[in-house]
């Protein structure tokens, strides 16, 4: 098995004006850096589906800047359609990214053939290494195991962040790895459990990178119990888990603000209403 890696799906720090806070990105990368192998900006923990192009661009730029040449950077692209993903992948390449990680198209009831065609099109038109993100909460669909194998056979597919709705077996993981693809655990509740993997990509790594590193070493009931406790403490199973992670990082002084993109929208709406009332006077 290859060297196990911890890749951090970074939260996206925003300032009071909803711009990406460069200082906070620097602090977060520095806090995690000695204990991890790389960073994934703009994935789901980074509210990637809800970032503006400017926010997405700045988050990638700052991550590349502070990760330097010592850490791997894989940028998340969470957009509804194949064409939008390809367009964003082109921008990623222009900004200096070498790897991307993408979901399926956003559509409930989508066919497995459509999902496979999505990845084939991205692979053929975007000359970057490609990681698969298997999930269902954002895209509204999930890849079958056979579809995962088909995608894994594409030449530049290098890894899979797996957050399946049904428990994965070790035999399935071994089969994926036979295609030359690294398998990354995507759920906190699988850390330090029975599954052997090539590492993990979990939100908890923003807060506890050392624990996520230790969890790579295989089954450890004591470590799994600690993870379970932290999972509950930081509400990592909630729909707005990233907001709880941001609040904790702000409390620790790593981030200057815990503002989320949803709160940003609420603030902008309130400001617009206030302006409208003032203008009407």
From TrEMBL:
Which InterPro entries does this one have?
Answer: Aldolase_TIM, DapA-like
Which GO molecular function entries does the Swiss-Prot or TrEMBL record give? N-acetylneuraminate lyase activity
Which GO terms are recorded in the biological process aspect for this UniProt protein?
Answer: N-acetylneuraminate catabolic process
Q: Which UniProt keywords apply?
A: Lyase
Gene Ontology cellular-component annotations: cytosol
Q: PANTHER family, alphabetically?
A: N-ACETYLNEURAMINATE LYASE
What protein name is recorded for this chain?
4-hydroxy-tetrahydrodipicolinate synthase
């Amino acid at each position: 098995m290859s060297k196990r890696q911890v890749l951090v799906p970074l939260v996206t720090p925003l300032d009071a004006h909803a711009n990406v806070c460069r200082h906070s990105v620097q602090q977060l990368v520095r806090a995690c850096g000695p204990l991890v192998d790389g960073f994934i900006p703009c994935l789901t923990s980074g509210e990637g589906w809800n970032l503006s192009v400017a926010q997405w661009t700045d988050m990638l730029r700052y991550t590349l800047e502070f990760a330097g040449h010592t850490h791997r950077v894989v940028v998340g692209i969470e957009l509804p359609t194949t064409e939008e993903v390809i367009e964003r992948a082109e921008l990623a390449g222009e900004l200096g990214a070498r790897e991307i990680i993408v979901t399926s198209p956003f559509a409930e009831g989508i066919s497995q053939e459509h999902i496979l065609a999505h990845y084939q099109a991205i692979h053929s038109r975007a000359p970057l290494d490609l990681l698969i993100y298997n999930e269902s909460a954002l895209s509204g669909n999930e890849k079958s195991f056979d579809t995962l194998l088909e995608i894994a056979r594409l030449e530049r597919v290098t890894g899979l962040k797996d957050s399946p709705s049904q428990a994965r077996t070790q035999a399935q993981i071994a089969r994926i790895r036979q295609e030359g693809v690294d398998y990354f655990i995507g759920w906190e509740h699988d850390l330090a459990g029975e599954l052997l993997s090539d590492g993990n990509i979990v939100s908890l790594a923003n807060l506890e990178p050392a624990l996520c590193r230790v969890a790579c070493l295989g089954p450890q009931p004591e470590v799994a119990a600690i993870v379970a406790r932290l999972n509950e403490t930081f509400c990592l199973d909630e729909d707005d888990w990233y907001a709880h992670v941001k609040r904790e990082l702000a409390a620790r002084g790593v981030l200057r603000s815990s503002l989320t993109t949803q709160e940003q929208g609420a603030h902008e709406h309130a400001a617009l209403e206030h302006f409208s009332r003032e203008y009407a006077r």
